[in-house]
Design goal:
Alpha-Beta Plaits, single chain
Length: 122
Amino acid sequence: MVIVMERAATEEQVQKVIETLVEQGYDVHRSTGVSHTVLGAVGIPRQVIDPRAIELIPGVREVIIATSPSVDGEATAMYIARTLKPLGIQVSRIATGLPVGGELEYSDQATIARALAGRATM
């Protein structure tokens, strides 16, 4: 999961998000840029993270979900998205589909459908 903090997020707000993620069992990697702080949360949580815990921490702008395209990953992503969207937090997901160098003839219908859904204009 990647969390993008608001441009005006304070150090205290950033630390609170980091503490919340660490308590859930994630390894957190911080990257502070010119305009935003981005937190990467990697690992298998001890329990399903309660998205409302993130919502209660001011300063969160966006949550980018990066779960496996498995049944469990899809369910987790949908749960997080459905919980956070009504709270005004932008939720997005990393793209899935065909790998670079992959052959269409060896791809299943669901993979091709996801690749088409996530296509970009050139």
